[in-house]
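note to self: dont lose this again. the chain is below, predicted strucutre after it. 177 aa total, dont forget to put it in the shared folder this time
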Amino acid sequence: MGDDPLYAASRDVMGSEFRIDRLAPEDPPWDLLLDADPNRTMIMDYWPRGRAYGLWHGPDLIAEAVFLPTRPLTWELINVAVRDAWRRRGLARALIARGLEDAHRAGIRVVEVGTADATLGALQLYLTMGFRIVGVDMDFFVRLYRDPVVDNGRLCRDMIRLALDLSVPGLAGVEED
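---
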């Protein structure tokens, strides 16, 4: 699992009863995927092309993250979800850190992510991991989702776009080789 300091710290928070492994492409965890993205059609489009990770507590899958190659040397964190009972314990951070570690090892230079304007917890997580805001896709959720998307009791309208430059030493705990 590597020597990445951020991932190591997240692994310590998780404890030995947790494990992160790649998810099999033929068995998508629909309940978790749909929790993060209510558009099944969009998930069906990106799932087979993505690099998916699962976080297990014993035999139970309790979280997932999907990274998608989007351009040369660029991945996007396109879906991440943690079951309600397991939130606010550093598990999403651990999954993301594992993906960032693998991206760095694969020579990826930039990891991007988009989050709804109503998901302040996710935005805070990404910012504390070193992601920087690079733009706002106005009315993204209004344009692309037939039904209103609500998070934290607020209507999601805009997508906040963030990026992490993995070539900058020390960001997200990624060390240069």
